[in-house]
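Protein modeling request. Please complete all fields; requests missing the sequence field cannot be processed.
Requester role: graduate student
Desired output: 3D structure, token encoding
Chains: 1
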Amino acid sequence: MSYHKTLSFYTREKESKNIIEQNPNKVPIICLKDPKSNLTETKKTKYLLDKNFTISQFTALIKTKLKLNSNEALFLVAKKGNKSNALAGDVPMSQVYEEFKEKDGFLYIFYTSKEIWGN
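Delivered output (119 residues):
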């Protein structure tokens, strides 16, 4: 079930503000399996990452959590409203956060085994 649907906007916003206040050098992330993906779901969905942590590092972390082989593809997609963008490379989380954070203060990233290029 979507994180948006399990908690109210007010609860999510309050949570993200508390996290950011206590951890000003970190980025609060909700990472979920894309509904169209055939990958398994990770047990952990919330991450608090250093602002300098890169997309490449996060991809490797999620691959480890999913127990994927190094030759298996994993794609990360940032979603904000109806907009989605594929993420890759050494882009720092701070940059992704500023561009794609939702109004509730969280950055929502979805993972999939297939390429997704915008909606």
